# Entry
Amino acid sequence: MSDGLFDAPGAEAVSDEFVASVPSGGGQFAPLAVRMRPRTLEEVVGQQHLLGPGSPLRRLVEGSGAASVLLYGPPGTGKTTLASLLSQATGRRFEALSALSAGVKEVRAVIDLARRRLTAGEQTVLFIDEVHRFSKTQQDALLAAVENRIVLLVAATTENPSFSVVSPLLSRSLVLQLKSLSEDDIRAVLNRAIADPRGLGGQYEVTDEALEHIVRIAGGDARRSLTALEASAESSLDGTVDVTLVEASVDKAAVRYDRDGDQHYDVISAFIKSLRGSDVDAALHYLARMLSAGEDPRFIARRLMIQASEEVGMADPTALQTAVAAAQVVQLVGLPEAQLALTQATIHIATAPKSGGVVKALGAAMADIGAGKAGAVPPHLRDGHYAGAEKLGNAQGYKYPHDHPDGVLTQQYPPDELVGKNYYQPTDHGYEREVGPRVTKLRRIVRGK
# Structure
Protein backbone atom coordinates (compact mmCIF):
# COMPACT_ATOMS: atom_id res chain seq x y z
CA MET A 1 0.00 0.00 0.00
CA SER A 2 1.12 3.55 -0.59
CA ASP A 3 0.00 6.76 1.09
CA GLY A 4 -0.22 5.05 4.46
CA LEU A 5 0.63 6.66 7.76
CA PHE A 6 3.75 4.61 8.37
CA ASP A 7 4.36 2.88 5.03
CA ALA A 8 7.73 2.90 3.40
CA PRO A 9 7.81 4.87 0.13
CA GLY A 10 6.76 2.67 -2.76
CA ALA A 11 5.47 -0.12 -0.56
CA GLU A 12 3.05 -2.43 -2.33
CA ALA A 13 -0.43 -3.31 -1.17
CA VAL A 14 -0.49 -6.24 1.23
CA SER A 15 -2.92 -9.11 1.45
CA ASP A 16 -4.95 -10.05 4.51
CA GLU A 17 -2.64 -13.03 5.11
CA PHE A 18 0.39 -10.73 5.19
CA VAL A 19 -1.24 -8.24 7.55
CA ALA A 20 -2.30 -11.05 9.86
CA SER A 21 1.23 -12.43 9.91
CA VAL A 22 2.79 -9.18 11.08
CA PRO A 23 0.37 -7.67 13.59
CA SER A 24 3.15 -5.59 15.14
CA GLY A 25 3.79 -3.73 11.90
CA GLY A 26 6.67 -5.69 10.39
CA GLY A 27 9.86 -7.53 11.33
CA GLN A 28 13.13 -6.09 12.57
CA PHE A 29 14.40 -5.55 9.04
CA ALA A 30 11.30 -3.71 7.88
CA PRO A 31 11.59 0.08 7.40
CA LEU A 32 11.04 2.15 10.52
CA ALA A 33 7.81 3.57 9.09
CA VAL A 34 6.43 0.04 8.74
CA ARG A 35 7.63 -1.16 12.15
CA MET A 36 6.00 1.80 13.86
CA ARG A 37 2.62 1.42 12.19
CA PRO A 38 -0.05 1.67 14.93
CA ARG A 39 -1.40 -1.67 16.09
CA THR A 40 -4.50 -0.23 17.75
CA LEU A 41 -6.66 2.85 17.46
CA GLU A 42 -5.12 4.15 20.68
CA GLU A 43 -1.73 4.33 18.94
CA VAL A 44 -3.07 6.37 16.02
CA VAL A 45 -1.80 9.96 16.16
CA GLY A 46 -4.04 12.72 14.84
CA GLN A 47 -7.43 12.49 13.10
CA GLN A 48 -9.25 12.71 16.42
CA HIS A 49 -12.09 14.50 14.63
CA LEU A 50 -12.83 11.15 12.97
CA LEU A 51 -12.00 8.78 15.80
CA GLY A 52 -14.18 10.00 18.65
CA PRO A 53 -16.35 7.51 20.58
CA GLY A 54 -19.24 6.28 18.44
CA SER A 55 -17.91 7.89 15.27
CA PRO A 56 -18.53 5.97 12.00
CA LEU A 57 -14.81 5.37 11.46
CA ARG A 58 -14.22 4.11 15.00
CA ARG A 59 -17.21 1.77 14.78
CA LEU A 60 -15.91 0.52 11.44
CA VAL A 61 -12.44 -0.18 12.82
CA GLU A 62 -13.92 -1.81 15.90
CA GLY A 63 -15.90 -4.13 13.68
CA SER A 64 -19.43 -2.80 14.20
CA GLY A 65 -19.76 -0.33 11.34
CA ALA A 66 -21.33 -1.23 8.02
CA ALA A 67 -20.77 1.80 5.79
CA SER A 68 -18.27 1.90 2.94
CA VAL A 69 -15.89 4.83 3.29
CA LEU A 70 -13.68 7.04 1.16
CA LEU A 71 -10.65 8.26 3.08
CA TYR A 72 -9.52 11.53 1.55
CA GLY A 73 -6.39 13.35 2.66
CA PRO A 74 -2.71 14.18 2.08
CA PRO A 75 0.01 11.51 2.08
CA GLY A 76 1.19 10.20 5.42
CA THR A 77 -1.95 11.05 7.38
CA GLY A 78 -3.15 7.54 8.19
CA LYS A 79 -5.29 6.29 5.32
CA THR A 80 -3.49 2.98 4.93
CA THR A 81 -2.96 2.60 8.66
CA LEU A 82 -6.70 2.81 9.28
CA ALA A 83 -7.31 0.33 6.47
CA SER A 84 -4.76 -2.02 8.05
CA LEU A 85 -6.56 -1.78 11.39
CA LEU A 86 -9.76 -2.76 9.61
CA SER A 87 -8.17 -6.10 8.81
CA GLN A 88 -8.26 -6.88 12.51
CA ALA A 89 -11.99 -6.20 12.83
CA THR A 90 -13.71 -9.30 14.14
CA GLY A 91 -15.24 -11.57 11.52
CA ARG A 92 -13.90 -9.72 8.49
CA ARG A 93 -11.47 -10.76 5.82
CA PHE A 94 -9.21 -8.16 4.28
CA GLU A 95 -8.34 -7.72 0.60
CA ALA A 96 -6.21 -4.92 -0.82
CA LEU A 97 -5.88 -3.62 -4.36
CA SER A 98 -3.81 -0.78 -5.72
CA ALA A 99 -5.34 1.28 -8.50
CA LEU A 100 -1.85 1.54 -9.96
CA SER A 101 -1.78 -2.16 -10.86
CA ALA A 102 -5.31 -3.59 -10.62
CA GLY A 103 -7.84 -3.64 -13.45
CA VAL A 104 -11.50 -4.61 -13.83
CA LYS A 105 -10.52 -8.30 -13.89
CA GLU A 106 -8.86 -8.09 -10.49
CA VAL A 107 -11.76 -6.12 -9.04
CA ARG A 108 -14.31 -8.69 -10.22
CA ALA A 109 -12.17 -11.55 -8.90
CA VAL A 110 -12.14 -10.03 -5.41
CA ILE A 111 -15.90 -9.44 -5.57
CA ASP A 112 -16.52 -13.06 -6.59
CA LEU A 113 -14.34 -14.22 -3.68
CA ALA A 114 -16.21 -11.92 -1.30
CA ARG A 115 -19.55 -13.26 -2.55
CA ARG A 116 -18.48 -16.84 -1.78
CA ARG A 117 -17.25 -15.82 1.66
CA LEU A 118 -20.53 -14.07 2.38
CA THR A 119 -22.45 -17.31 1.88
CA ALA A 120 -20.23 -18.78 4.61
CA GLY A 121 -20.97 -15.85 6.93
CA GLU A 122 -17.71 -13.97 6.38
CA GLN A 123 -17.67 -10.33 5.33
CA THR A 124 -14.84 -8.91 3.24
CA VAL A 125 -13.23 -5.51 3.61
CA LEU A 126 -11.85 -4.35 0.26
CA PHE A 127 -9.19 -1.67 0.50
CA ILE A 128 -8.36 0.22 -2.71
CA ASP A 129 -5.44 2.60 -2.60
CA GLU A 130 -5.17 5.53 -5.04
CA VAL A 131 -8.82 4.99 -6.04
CA HIS A 132 -8.78 8.24 -8.03
CA ARG A 133 -6.55 6.44 -10.53
CA PHE A 134 -9.32 3.95 -11.30
CA SER A 135 -11.12 4.63 -14.57
CA LYS A 136 -14.89 5.19 -14.63
CA THR A 137 -15.34 1.59 -15.83
CA GLN A 138 -13.27 0.23 -12.96
CA GLN A 139 -15.18 2.30 -10.43
CA ASP A 140 -18.52 1.27 -11.94
CA ALA A 141 -17.52 -2.38 -11.46
CA LEU A 142 -17.65 -1.81 -7.71
CA LEU A 143 -21.14 -0.29 -7.52
CA ALA A 144 -23.32 -3.38 -7.17
CA ALA A 145 -20.98 -5.03 -4.67
CA VAL A 146 -20.86 -1.91 -2.53
CA GLU A 147 -24.62 -1.27 -2.71
CA ASN A 148 -25.46 -4.90 -1.79
CA ARG A 149 -22.70 -4.95 0.86
CA ILE A 150 -20.96 -7.89 -0.71
CA VAL A 151 -17.83 -5.96 0.17
CA LEU A 152 -17.23 -3.21 2.66
CA LEU A 153 -15.23 -0.76 0.58
CA VAL A 154 -12.50 1.35 2.11
CA ALA A 155 -10.92 3.52 -0.56
CA ALA A 156 -8.06 5.97 -0.13
CA THR A 157 -7.30 9.01 -2.26
CA THR A 158 -5.16 12.12 -2.08
CA GLU A 159 -7.50 13.93 -4.49
CA ASN A 160 -10.87 15.48 -3.79
CA PRO A 161 -13.31 12.58 -4.36
CA SER A 162 -15.95 15.01 -5.61
CA PHE A 163 -13.82 15.37 -8.73
CA SER A 164 -12.11 11.98 -8.93
CA VAL A 165 -14.76 9.44 -7.91
CA VAL A 166 -17.91 8.69 -9.93
CA SER A 167 -21.11 10.07 -8.42
CA PRO A 168 -22.89 6.71 -7.88
CA LEU A 169 -19.94 5.36 -5.86
CA LEU A 170 -19.60 8.64 -4.01
CA SER A 171 -23.26 8.59 -2.97
CA ARG A 172 -22.92 5.03 -1.62
CA SER A 173 -19.93 5.85 0.57
CA LEU A 174 -19.15 7.90 3.63
CA VAL A 175 -16.52 10.50 2.71
CA LEU A 176 -14.09 11.20 5.56
CA GLN A 177 -11.41 13.85 5.18
CA LEU A 178 -8.13 13.27 6.98
CA LYS A 179 -6.07 16.29 7.92
CA SER A 180 -2.33 16.84 7.73
CA LEU A 181 -0.75 16.01 11.05
CA SER A 182 0.15 18.93 13.26
CA GLU A 183 3.70 19.60 14.37
CA ASP A 184 2.80 18.24 17.80
CA ASP A 185 1.48 15.07 16.14
CA ILE A 186 4.70 14.59 14.15
CA ARG A 187 6.74 15.26 17.27
CA ALA A 188 4.80 12.57 19.13
CA VAL A 189 5.33 10.09 16.29
CA LEU A 190 9.08 10.75 16.30
CA ASN A 191 9.48 10.56 20.07
CA ARG A 192 7.64 7.25 20.12
CA ALA A 193 9.85 5.86 17.35
CA ILE A 194 13.01 7.00 19.17
CA ALA A 195 12.03 5.22 22.40
CA ASP A 196 9.92 2.27 21.30
CA PRO A 197 11.62 -1.17 21.01
CA ARG A 198 9.94 -1.54 17.61
CA GLY A 199 11.74 1.61 16.54
CA LEU A 200 15.15 2.86 17.60
CA GLY A 201 14.75 1.44 21.09
CA GLY A 202 16.40 4.36 22.85
CA GLN A 203 19.75 3.60 21.25
CA TYR A 204 20.13 7.04 19.67
CA GLU A 205 20.28 10.51 21.17
CA VAL A 206 18.40 12.91 18.90
CA THR A 207 19.09 16.57 19.65
CA ASP A 208 16.18 18.97 20.05
CA GLU A 209 17.36 20.96 17.03
CA ALA A 210 17.50 17.82 14.88
CA LEU A 211 14.05 16.73 16.05
CA GLU A 212 12.54 20.13 15.26
CA HIS A 213 14.18 20.15 11.83
CA ILE A 214 12.65 16.78 10.98
CA VAL A 215 9.28 18.05 12.20
CA ARG A 216 9.56 21.03 9.86
CA ILE A 217 10.60 19.13 6.75
CA ALA A 218 7.92 16.47 7.32
CA GLY A 219 5.19 18.88 6.25
CA GLY A 220 2.53 17.00 8.22
CA ASP A 221 3.54 13.63 6.72
CA ALA A 222 4.36 11.05 9.41
CA ARG A 223 5.89 8.59 6.96
CA ARG A 224 8.25 11.26 5.65
CA SER A 225 9.31 12.15 9.19
CA LEU A 226 10.08 8.54 10.11
CA THR A 227 11.98 7.96 6.88
CA ALA A 228 14.13 11.03 7.63
CA LEU A 229 14.72 9.87 11.20
CA GLU A 230 15.72 6.38 10.08
CA ALA A 231 18.08 7.68 7.40
CA SER A 232 19.73 10.00 9.92
CA ALA A 233 20.11 7.26 12.55
CA GLU A 234 21.66 4.90 10.03
CA SER A 235 24.27 7.57 9.22
CA SER A 236 25.20 8.15 12.86
CA LEU A 237 28.59 6.79 13.92
CA ASP A 238 28.34 7.57 17.63
CA GLY A 239 24.63 7.18 18.35
CA THR A 240 23.96 10.91 18.15
CA VAL A 241 21.65 12.52 15.59
CA ASP A 242 22.13 16.27 15.21
CA VAL A 243 20.79 18.73 12.66
CA THR A 244 23.94 18.53 10.52
CA LEU A 245 23.51 14.79 10.22
CA VAL A 246 19.83 15.19 9.37
CA GLU A 247 20.67 17.74 6.67
CA ALA A 248 23.20 15.40 5.08
CA SER A 249 20.96 12.35 5.39
CA VAL A 250 17.83 13.78 3.83
CA ASP A 251 19.70 15.97 1.35
CA LYS A 252 17.97 19.17 2.44
CA ALA A 253 19.52 22.30 3.82
CA ALA A 254 18.35 23.41 7.24
CA VAL A 255 15.95 26.29 6.88
CA ARG A 256 15.90 28.67 9.82
CA TYR A 257 12.17 29.21 9.83
CA ASP A 258 9.54 29.21 12.56
CA ARG A 259 5.97 29.39 11.34
CA ASP A 260 4.95 31.09 14.58
CA GLY A 261 7.99 33.33 15.03
CA ASP A 262 9.94 36.21 13.52
CA GLN A 263 11.31 34.20 10.61
CA HIS A 264 7.78 33.43 9.41
CA TYR A 265 6.97 37.14 9.16
CA ASP A 266 10.39 38.12 7.87
CA VAL A 267 10.35 35.61 5.03
CA ILE A 268 6.78 36.32 3.90
CA SER A 269 7.55 40.06 4.09
CA ALA A 270 10.62 39.57 1.89
CA PHE A 271 8.54 37.43 -0.50
CA ILE A 272 5.90 40.15 -0.84
CA LYS A 273 8.45 42.91 -1.33
CA SER A 274 10.35 40.87 -3.92
CA LEU A 275 7.12 40.40 -5.89
CA ARG A 276 6.38 44.12 -5.63
CA GLY A 277 9.93 44.96 -6.68
CA SER A 278 9.78 42.63 -9.72
CA ASP A 279 12.77 40.57 -8.55
CA VAL A 280 11.60 37.19 -9.78
CA ASP A 281 14.71 35.36 -8.57
CA ALA A 282 14.47 36.67 -5.02
CA ALA A 283 10.74 35.86 -4.97
CA LEU A 284 11.50 32.29 -6.04
CA HIS A 285 14.15 32.00 -3.34
CA TYR A 286 11.70 32.97 -0.60
CA LEU A 287 9.01 30.74 -2.09
CA ALA A 288 11.39 27.77 -2.03
CA ARG A 289 12.42 28.68 1.50
CA MET A 290 8.82 28.59 2.69
CA LEU A 291 8.03 25.35 0.89
CA SER A 292 11.17 23.66 2.19
CA ALA A 293 10.31 24.70 5.73
CA GLY A 294 6.85 23.18 5.49
CA GLU A 295 4.86 26.40 5.29
CA ASP A 296 1.15 25.85 4.68
CA PRO A 297 0.73 26.14 0.87
CA ARG A 298 -2.71 27.63 1.39
CA PHE A 299 -1.10 30.55 3.20
CA ILE A 300 1.25 31.13 0.27
CA ALA A 301 -1.65 30.88 -2.20
CA ARG A 302 -3.65 33.47 -0.25
CA ARG A 303 -0.74 35.88 -0.31
CA LEU A 304 -0.31 35.44 -4.06
CA MET A 305 -4.00 36.21 -4.68
CA ILE A 306 -3.70 39.36 -2.59
CA GLN A 307 -0.51 40.43 -4.37
CA ALA A 308 -2.09 39.90 -7.80
CA SER A 309 -4.56 42.73 -7.09
CA GLU A 310 -2.45 44.80 -4.72
CA GLU A 311 0.77 44.99 -6.74
CA VAL A 312 -0.33 44.24 -10.31
CA GLY A 313 -4.01 45.03 -10.51
CA MET A 314 -5.24 46.26 -13.86
CA ALA A 315 -1.71 46.48 -15.28
CA ASP A 316 -2.18 42.74 -15.96
CA PRO A 317 -5.67 41.47 -14.99
CA THR A 318 -4.65 37.89 -15.81
CA ALA A 319 -2.28 37.81 -12.81
CA LEU A 320 -5.26 37.38 -10.48
CA GLN A 321 -6.57 34.55 -12.64
CA THR A 322 -3.22 32.78 -12.37
CA ALA A 323 -3.10 33.24 -8.60
CA VAL A 324 -6.65 31.96 -8.13
CA ALA A 325 -5.89 28.97 -10.36
CA ALA A 326 -2.80 28.20 -8.23
CA ALA A 327 -4.93 28.29 -5.08
CA GLN A 328 -7.35 25.84 -6.68
CA VAL A 329 -4.47 23.50 -7.56
CA VAL A 330 -3.35 23.62 -3.92
CA GLN A 331 -6.88 22.65 -2.86
CA LEU A 332 -7.58 20.00 -5.49
CA VAL A 333 -4.15 18.43 -6.04
CA GLY A 334 -2.05 19.27 -3.00
CA LEU A 335 1.68 18.96 -2.48
CA PRO A 336 4.12 18.26 -3.94
CA GLU A 337 2.61 18.90 -7.38
CA ALA A 338 0.96 22.17 -6.30
CA GLN A 339 4.43 23.65 -5.78
CA LEU A 340 4.65 24.12 -9.55
CA ALA A 341 1.42 26.11 -9.69
CA LEU A 342 2.61 28.33 -6.83
CA THR A 343 5.88 28.83 -8.70
CA GLN A 344 4.04 29.75 -11.90
CA ALA A 345 1.93 32.32 -10.05
CA THR A 346 5.03 33.74 -8.35
CA ILE A 347 6.82 34.16 -11.69
CA HIS A 348 3.72 35.73 -13.29
CA ILE A 349 3.24 38.29 -10.52
CA ALA A 350 6.93 39.12 -10.18
CA THR A 351 7.41 39.71 -13.91
CA ALA A 352 4.08 41.46 -14.56
CA PRO A 353 3.88 45.24 -14.96
CA LYS A 354 3.00 46.84 -11.64
CA SER A 355 0.22 49.22 -10.65
CA GLY A 356 -1.13 50.33 -7.31
CA GLY A 357 -4.24 51.69 -9.02
CA VAL A 358 -6.60 49.16 -7.49
CA VAL A 359 -5.39 49.86 -3.95
CA LYS A 360 -5.46 53.64 -4.42
CA ALA A 361 -8.92 53.57 -6.02
CA LEU A 362 -10.44 51.62 -3.15
CA GLY A 363 -8.57 53.70 -0.57
CA ALA A 364 -9.83 56.97 -2.03
CA ALA A 365 -13.42 55.73 -2.19
CA MET A 366 -13.26 54.37 1.37
CA ALA A 367 -11.80 57.67 2.59
CA ASP A 368 -14.79 59.56 1.23
CA ILE A 369 -17.18 57.10 2.85
CA GLY A 370 -15.31 57.55 6.13
CA ALA A 371 -15.63 61.33 5.76
CA GLY A 372 -19.41 61.03 5.47
CA LYS A 373 -19.57 61.59 1.73
CA ALA A 374 -22.30 59.04 1.08
CA GLY A 375 -25.14 61.04 -0.39
CA ALA A 376 -28.52 59.78 -1.49
CA VAL A 377 -28.69 57.47 -4.48
CA PRO A 378 -30.02 59.46 -7.48
CA PRO A 379 -33.76 58.77 -7.90
CA HIS A 380 -33.45 57.38 -11.42
CA LEU A 381 -31.03 54.68 -10.18
CA ARG A 382 -33.20 53.49 -7.30
CA ASP A 383 -35.10 50.21 -7.29
CA GLY A 384 -38.47 50.42 -9.04
CA HIS A 385 -39.61 46.80 -8.66
CA TYR A 386 -42.24 47.28 -5.98
CA ALA A 387 -45.64 48.87 -5.64
CA GLY A 388 -45.46 52.57 -4.90
CA ALA A 389 -41.98 53.07 -6.33
CA GLU A 390 -43.28 55.18 -9.20
CA LYS A 391 -45.15 57.53 -6.85
CA LEU A 392 -41.88 58.09 -5.02
CA GLY A 393 -40.15 58.97 -8.25
CA ASN A 394 -37.88 55.95 -8.11
CA ALA A 395 -36.44 54.53 -11.34
CA GLN A 396 -38.05 57.32 -13.36
CA GLY A 397 -36.00 58.69 -16.21
CA TYR A 398 -33.37 55.96 -16.13
CA LYS A 399 -31.61 55.56 -19.50
CA TYR A 400 -30.77 51.97 -20.48
CA PRO A 401 -27.19 52.00 -21.91
CA HIS A 402 -27.81 49.02 -24.20
CA ASP A 403 -30.42 51.06 -26.09
CA HIS A 404 -27.62 53.34 -27.25
CA PRO A 405 -25.54 52.23 -30.26
CA ASP A 406 -22.27 52.69 -28.32
CA GLY A 407 -23.52 51.00 -25.15
CA VAL A 408 -22.66 54.09 -23.08
CA LEU A 409 -24.49 57.41 -22.65
CA THR A 410 -24.63 60.54 -20.53
CA GLN A 411 -26.22 59.92 -17.14
CA GLN A 412 -25.52 60.73 -13.50
CA TYR A 413 -24.50 57.71 -11.44
CA PRO A 414 -22.83 58.98 -8.22
CA PRO A 415 -24.59 60.93 -5.46
CA ASP A 416 -24.72 64.69 -6.04
CA GLU A 417 -21.85 65.31 -3.61
CA LEU A 418 -19.48 63.10 -5.61
CA VAL A 419 -20.22 64.13 -9.18
CA GLY A 420 -16.91 64.56 -11.03
CA LYS A 421 -14.89 62.69 -8.40
CA ASN A 422 -12.13 60.46 -9.88
CA TYR A 423 -11.05 57.47 -7.78
CA TYR A 424 -9.32 55.26 -10.32
CA GLN A 425 -6.13 56.71 -11.76
CA PRO A 426 -4.65 54.32 -14.37
CA THR A 427 -0.90 54.24 -14.79
CA ASP A 428 0.89 53.84 -18.10
CA HIS A 429 2.10 50.36 -17.10
CA GLY A 430 1.06 47.26 -18.99
CA TYR A 431 -2.64 46.92 -19.81
CA GLU A 432 -3.39 50.19 -17.99
CA ARG A 433 -1.62 51.97 -20.82
CA GLU A 434 -4.58 50.90 -22.94
CA VAL A 435 -7.32 51.22 -20.34
CA GLY A 436 -6.25 54.73 -19.28
CA PRO A 437 -7.41 56.57 -22.43
CA ARG A 438 -10.59 54.46 -22.41
CA VAL A 439 -11.38 55.53 -18.85
CA THR A 440 -10.87 59.18 -19.84
CA LYS A 441 -13.21 58.79 -22.83
CA LEU A 442 -15.88 57.00 -20.80
CA ARG A 443 -15.83 59.66 -18.11
CA ARG A 444 -16.26 62.36 -20.75
CA ILE A 445 -19.28 60.64 -22.31
CA VAL A 446 -20.97 59.65 -19.05
CA ARG A 447 -20.50 63.11 -17.55
CA GLY A 448 -21.49 64.89 -20.78
CA LYS A 449 -18.31 66.91 -21.05
Observations:
- The mean pLDDT is 81.
- Strands lie at 69-72, 92-98, 123-129, 151-157, 174-177, 205-206, 240-241.
- The CA atoms of residues 60 and 70 lie 12 Å apart.
- The radius of gyration is 30 Å.
